[in-house]
Amino acid sequence: MQGLDTQLVVALAASVIVWGLCSARLQRFDISAPMVFVGLGLLCANPLGLVDVSSRGEGLHTLAEITLALLLFSDAARVNLRVLARDVSVPTKLLFLGLPLSIGLGTVLAALLFPGVNVWVLAAIAASIAPTDAALGAQVVEDPHVPKRVRRILNVESGLNDGIATPFVTFFLATAVSELAVHPAQSALGAVGDLALGALVGILIGAGGGWLLKWASTKEWANPSYRALTVVAFALLAYAGADELGANGFIAAFVGGLAFGTVFVPAERDRALQFDAGAGSLLSLIVWFVFGAFLVSALDVVTWQTVVYAVLALTVVRMLPVALVLVGSKLDRSTVAFIGWFGPRGLASVVFALVVSDALTGKDAQLALSVISLTVLASVVAHGLSASPLARRYGAHMARLAQDSPEHHDVPHLSPRPLPGTGKQPDR
User: Is the pLDDT of residue 46 over 80?
Assistant: First the structure.
């Protein structure tokens, strides 16, 4: 992706046009946008040979990282902490207990399947595939038959866990790199410092930006048409500003979004955060296309251990921690199983795969890229195809439950994020 690759641009443009023309029809058959764009990317790279994308390409890294930074900021900004506090129990358990348990369990199983590999490398892999992505199970968070509270739990979890997983990935990767002596100057302690500085940058830019936009809106200085662009600029400033200071840009974007959403809470807030309905969604689809294009090289070294681990990552590693942390929540067993299954891996894991494989070398880099890529690919297919039928089946079961059951409890409104490729906005 050095310079302007016109073949890639043509392939991308054609893919977006195809999806735009056929999206409603394809969605009736439970075919999601990520499934289509991964497939088209794979087709254009091999066998057609129209595009040649390297997983270590600088342009790919930049595009993927900017996309993740924008979505981290926007997702976090929508989950206003003061509003979320009114129904915080289940999301908190999933995020702060379930996520670490998933990473820990994933590391243990990886150590059993990949003996001899540095444990910190395995921990970085496990952390990279821990966060979930609601876009891969869009039918679930859109389906009105699924109780609103359950849809909101899944969407809030997927909106925040990629940001929460970032410190784990950063710390584990820095420790692995330090122990492997690839970059001796990098250390776990340095990673902690980078995370702390990134959080500080995010707080300053997010809170300051939210206050400035709120003040300018109140004084009628800010044209409503340009508020969304201003939010994009704050997100990019948090990410790039932290990176320029040597801090973690993803943490800065995530914390910045939390700070922005907590400070900037006027009625125009939803409109100001709609930038990801266009630019963010388009970037997400492009990343999925590019992911499909480099899948062939990423999966060259797949072994039976890789396949087994990918299956375990989407089942046991996700579902067991969810079941454990939701003990005592009074949720129906079908709800616990439903939440446990719908933990699709998506955009964040793709970006983490690039970051981890780029920092490592040799077989460690190949292992990380192949394991994460196969897990995401399996999730794209499995969760994409199962989302709609399981949502309908689960919704029918929920309709028979008493209306005072925990699943049917009323929940406060949170700003919705349009799901890439759907044009719809789930309840949050």
Answer: no
- Residue at 231 is within a domain: yes
- The H or E element spanning position 38 is helix 33-45
At 269, list the tokens.
């807030």
Q: Are 332 and 405 in contact (CB under 8 A)?
A: yes
Q: Give the C-alpha separation, 123 to 127, whole Å.
A: 6
Look up the pTM and report it. Answer: 0.86
Domain that holds residue 294: 6-408
User: How many structural domains compose the chain?
Assistant: 1
Question: Which single residue is written with the structure tokens 């809170």?
Answer: 207
Find the DSSP H helices in 46-118: 58-78, 81-84, 89-93, 99-113
In 3D space, the residue among 205, 299, 219, 332 whose CA is nearest the CA of residue 258 turns out to be 205
How would residue 221 be classed by pLDDT, with cut points 50, 70 and 90? Answer: confident
The per-residue b/e assignment along 140-166, b for 16 or more CB within 10 angstroms, e otherwise, is: bbbbeebbbbbbbbbbbbbbbbbbbbb
Q: What angle do CA 306, 312, 316 make, to 5 degrees?
A: 165
In CATH, what number is assigned to the domain containing residue 266? 1.20.1530.20
Tell me the residue type at 413.
Answer: H
